[in-house]
């Protein structure tokens, strides 16, 4: 009887929890309160649920802060399953795979003086941790200290609450690989620099920092490669400082911290961002800034789970690429060049990989933040001037990772979306695109590896000592399309325009009619043998042929024609979801995390945790069955995202996977950047209001939206019935009202005419 009663109570509680999660909230006052910076932190190298860390920062801030649970220099700086904190790190890490640069940490301690991370670390609990974008707090149990952090773009305030003790200290760790510290007791200040990096920096790279205290030092020690001494200045492989105090119970010690990639004087100047604000005032200003940005997309009629997921994804979409510029004494924008080591005028941004982010993050910035996007374009122009190349993966300078020449998409889409509204040197950028498209760079990931073969044969063959050649070919073809689009807009010669249009059709050279998929070739034109479309790697990048065969962003009609028409095309799309998640891993010699994430998702060969296939769901719109897009978009949003530490289904990757969700929530997605179109999915919420930078609004109404009603029955655009499967960027910028009538059954009469299909080059 007792067991039955307990079971009954459990059922009631479960039902109540489910009902609470299904209750829709009509109005969100402070969207930042819904952000969970811990979303995606329950990750490791074998299985990623985001591979994120809690970023405590301002939008696109030059400096981020994070609690550090991992060892010094380890890419997984913070993981949710960790139990001890080693310090609070200023970080510039874009991903654990890229690791960090310009890093140092601060750690409060009680008891004997301790510097080494494994000695000073403390147990902590998520129950005594508060993580928001603008404020972080945690209780360090071993030291009986509460640490609080609140940032600006280049500075921050720390607040430590100590117990009563005669042995209170604060460690400043400048990390190894070359560092310097100097204690200045009369100014209650420590200065220093760190040179630790993971590559992509000039020889003179340093991150200069300054730390100011509101409490006089009673003890001053420096750390020199394992030894503590009373000297106040040290330069070594691993330098650091410890300053000590006697504290009363509840005594608060405040720190002001800033850094610069230029020099100590500039670090002091950056400290002025704090102004006269005390900790609480700075915290409130940070909250206001985040609320202002997040409120640019208002949502209504969503469950708590959906709200948390949406605003956590929107937060992640507003972090990268980071600002890598500073303001000099006259207020001019200046930057340390991560390409040539000089101090130069103008904007610079970094820490993004275009292979990931050209797909949805940069189109999102072009829609919502065109002025900021223009600054980023100026930064890219500066990068070309300073290095001779456009970066494809910058962190902070050129890095040799991933494939493609996707800077072409990033540059072209930004200009084509805004044209001459913003003044930057688009001709210089066009020159950079042409240069990158026709030359091999100083490393395979810069310019186009295999460019001579691609330009001669129309594809990159797999027998020239280069891997992932099919992926390169497909991405080069799309990149040529974006150059073609930009060349037209800039009124280049007909010969030049036609060259890139012709090259954009090179994807056809790798289409295998036997498998109806893409397949690698050698330099003699012979197909890769043996061939399995389930094999990851080899001719493809972090995926297989089932993933990459859809990378014809600009000419889906051409791909449909190759496959034999709409029915065959749809059948292949359907196969992606219906096939078992089998795979071949011989190229890697084992199961990489991207493979495992596809395998466990129970979506067949669909691998949403990695970028190459994320647009594929939207392709049913090109073949007269848009309701299948509507089904799978909702399925992916519901199943692959949540606002918890396991909230992603793979690497979040600098806002790309988050921006996919943000776009999909609104009901449209940029399948083909460098065109005017977004392809329709279906909105998630009852109402979404998008506040554009020009003052206009996009209002998306779907009053009947719920868990069952995932299909579009009808759509009205500004009151007029609208049957197209795409939306115009230019028309949206004018302000628009989209009225969706949603249904639990697909409308198989809407969007089925060829005139309703999105753009394809073959239809020009």
Automatic annotation (TrEMBL):
<dbReference type="InterPro" id="IPR041371">
    <property type="entry name" value="GH92_N"/>
</dbReference>
<keyword id="KW-0106">Calcium</keyword>
<dbReference type="Pfam" id="PF17678">
    <property type="entry name" value="Glyco_hydro_92N"/>
</dbReference>
<comment type="subunit">
    <text>Monomer.</text>
</comment>
<dbReference type="GO" id="GO:0016798">
    <property type="term" value="F:hydrolase activity, acting on glycosyl bonds"/>
</dbReference>
<dbReference type="InterPro" id="IPR014718">
    <property type="entry name" value="GH-type_carb-bd"/>
</dbReference>
<dbReference type="InterPro" id="IPR008928">
    <property type="entry name" value="6-hairpin_glycosidase_sf"/>
</dbReference>
<feature type="domain" description="Glycosyl hydrolase family 92 N-terminal">
    <location>
        <begin position="34"/>
        <end position="260"/>
    </location>
</feature>
<dbReference type="Pfam" id="PF07971">
    <property type="entry name" value="Glyco_hydro_92"/>
</dbReference>
<protein>
    <submittedName>
        <fullName>GH92 family glycosyl hydrolase</fullName>
        <ecNumber>3.2.1.-</ecNumber>
    </submittedName>
</protein>
<dbReference type="InterPro" id="IPR012939">
    <property type="entry name" value="Glyco_hydro_92"/>
</dbReference>
<feature type="domain" description="Glycosyl hydrolase family 92">
    <location>
        <begin position="266"/>
        <end position="744"/>
    </location>
</feature>
<dbReference type="InterPro" id="IPR050883">
    <property type="entry name" value="PNGase"/>
</dbReference>
<keyword id="KW-0378">Hydrolase</keyword>
<keyword id="KW-0326">Glycosidase</keyword>
<dbReference type="InterPro" id="IPR005887">
    <property type="entry name" value="GH92_a_mannosidase_put"/>
</dbReference>
């Amino acid at each position: 009887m007792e067991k039955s009663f307990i079971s009954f109570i459990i059922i009631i509680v479960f039902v109540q929890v489910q009902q609470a999660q299904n209750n829709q909230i009509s109005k969100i006052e402070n969207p930042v309160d819904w952000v969970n910076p811990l979303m995606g932190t329950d990750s490791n190298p074998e299985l990623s649920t985001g591979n994120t860390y809690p970023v405590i920062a301002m939008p696109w801030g030059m400096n981020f802060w994070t609690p550090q649970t991992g060892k010094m220099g380890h890419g997984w700086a913070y993981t949710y399953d960790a139990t001890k904190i080693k310090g609070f790190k200023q970080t510039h890490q874009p991903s654990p795979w890229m690791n960090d640069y310009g890093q140092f940490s601060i750690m409060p301690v009680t008891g004997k003086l301790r510097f080494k991370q494994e000695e000073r670390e403390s147990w902590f609990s998520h129950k005594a941790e508060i993580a928001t974008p603008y404020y972080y707090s945690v209780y360090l149990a071993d030291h009986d200290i509460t640490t609080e952090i609140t940032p600006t773009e280049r500075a921050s305030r720390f607040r430590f609450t100590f117990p009563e003790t005669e042995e209170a200290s604060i460690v400043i760790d400048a990390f190894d690989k070359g560092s310097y510290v100097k204690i200045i007791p009369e100014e209650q200040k420590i200065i220093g620099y760190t040179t630790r990096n993971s590559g992509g920096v000039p020889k003179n790279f340093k991150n200069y920092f300054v730390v100011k205290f509101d409490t006089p030092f009673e003890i001053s020690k420096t750390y020199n490669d394992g030894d503590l001494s009373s000297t106040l200045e040290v330069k070594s492989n691993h330098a650091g400082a410890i300053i000590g105090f006697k504290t009363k119970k509840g005594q608060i010690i405040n720190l002001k911290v800033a850094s610069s990639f230029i020099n100590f004087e500039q670090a002091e100047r950056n400290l002025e961002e704090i102004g006269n604000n005390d900790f609480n005032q700075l915290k409130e200003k940070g909250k206001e800034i985040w609320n202002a940005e997040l409120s640019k997309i208002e949502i209504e009629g969503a469950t708590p789970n959906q709200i948390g997921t949406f605003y956590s994804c929107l937060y992640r979409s507003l972090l990268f690429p980071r600002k890598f510029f500073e303001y000099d004494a006259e207020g001019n924008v200046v930057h340390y060049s991560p390409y040539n080591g000089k101090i130069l005028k103008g904007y610079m941004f970094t820490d993004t990989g275009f292979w990931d982010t050209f797909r949805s993050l940069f189109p999102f910035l072009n829609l919502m933040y065109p002025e900021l996007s223009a600054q980023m374009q100026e930064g890219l122009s500066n990068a070309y001037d300073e290095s001779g190349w456009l970066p494809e993966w910058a962190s902070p300078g050129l890095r040799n990772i991933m494939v493609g020449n996707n800077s072409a998409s990033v540059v072209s889409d930004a200009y084509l979306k805004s044209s001459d509204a913003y003044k930057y040197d688009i001709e210089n950028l066009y020159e950079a695109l042409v240069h990158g498209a026709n030359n091999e760079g100083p490393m395979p990931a810069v310019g186009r590896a295999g460019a001579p073969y691609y330009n001669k044969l129309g594809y990159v063959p797999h027998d020239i000592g280069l891997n992932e050649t099919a992926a390169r070919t497909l991405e080069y073809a799309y990149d040529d399309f974006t150059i073609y689009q930009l060349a037209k807009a800039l009124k280049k010669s007909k010969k030049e325009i036609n060259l890139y249009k012709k090259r954009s059709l090179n994807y056809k050279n790798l289409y295998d009619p036997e498998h109806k998929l893409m397949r690698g070739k050698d330099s003699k034109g012979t197909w890769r043998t043996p061939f399995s479309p389930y094999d990851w790697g080899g001719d493809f990048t972090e995926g297989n042929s089932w993933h990459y065969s859809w990378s014809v962003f600009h000419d889906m009609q051409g791909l449909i024609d190759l496959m034999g028409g709409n029915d065959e095309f749809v059948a292949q799309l359907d196969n992606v979801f219906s096939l078992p998640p089998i795979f071949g891993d011989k190229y890697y010699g084992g199961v990489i995390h991207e493979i495992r994430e596809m395998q466990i998702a129970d979506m067949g060969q669909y691998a949403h945790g990695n970028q190459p296939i994320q647009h594929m769901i939207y392709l049913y719109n090109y073949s007269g069955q848009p309701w299948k897009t509507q089904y799978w978009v909702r399925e992916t949003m519901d199943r692959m995202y949540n606002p918890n530490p396991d909230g992603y289904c793979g690497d979040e990757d600098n806002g790309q996977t988050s921006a996919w969700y943000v776009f999909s929530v609104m009901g449209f997605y940029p399948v083909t950047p460098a065109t005017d179109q977004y392809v329709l999915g279906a909105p998630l919420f009852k109402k979404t209001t998008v506040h554009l930078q020009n003052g206009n609004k996009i209002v998306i109404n779907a009053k009947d939206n719920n868990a069952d009603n995932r299909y579009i029955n009808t759509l009205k655009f500004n009151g007029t019935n609208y049957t197209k499967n795409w939306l115009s960027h230019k028309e949206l910028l004018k302000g628009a009202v989209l009225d969706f009538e949603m249904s639990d059954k697909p409308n198989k009469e809407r969007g089925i005419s060829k005139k309703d299909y999105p753009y394809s080059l073959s239809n020009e």
